[in-house]
């Protein structure tokens, strides 16, 4: 299992990384631009991410912009919709416009409001059809 955590807040990145680490490999990115670059590189290398968590409010490229770019890269690379990466948007704001934009403009598949809780994140990933199994490390 391969995860990408994109968040400009150190504590949030660390928390999500700590939650996901027992289930697979976790890469981190500190802003939307870096996240899109990591996503594109992984896809090009034939090792795509299974799940991406994207903070909405970030410098350089926010989560909404990064999500649109990720979906565009998938289209350009011919990734079938059913094989598209599962994206969970994370925000400190419970903003209905942000939720709307994430789902309808960016094809996000889930939305979580901070503070991030371990079981909620794991449950959301399982709801997306991604089976989590602890790995031996």
UniProtKB/TrEMBL annotation:
Pfam families: Response_reg. SUPFAM superfamilies: CheY-like (SSF52172). The modification 4-aspartylphosphate is found at residue 55. Keywords: Phosphoprotein. Residues 2-129 form the Response regulatory domain. This is Response regulator. It comes from Nitratidesulfovibrio oxamicus.
């Amino acid at each position: 299992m391969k995860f990408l955590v994109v968040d400009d807040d150190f504590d949030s990145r660390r928390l999500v990384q700590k939650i996901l680490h027992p289930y697979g490999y976790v890469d981190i990115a500190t802003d939307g631009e870096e996240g899109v670059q990591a996503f594109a590189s992984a896809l090009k290398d034939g090792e795509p991410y299974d799940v991406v968590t994207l903070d909405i409010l970030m410098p350089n490229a926010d989560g909404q912009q990064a999500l649109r770019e990720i979906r565009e890269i998938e289209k350009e690379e011919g990734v079938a919709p059913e094989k598209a990466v599962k994206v969970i948007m994370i925000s400190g704001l419970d903003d209905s416009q942000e939720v709307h934009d994430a789902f309808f403009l960016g094809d996000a598949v889930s939305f979580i409001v901070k503070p991030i809780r371990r079981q909620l994140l794991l449950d959301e990933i399982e709801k997306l059809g991604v089976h989590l199994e602890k790995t031996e490390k």
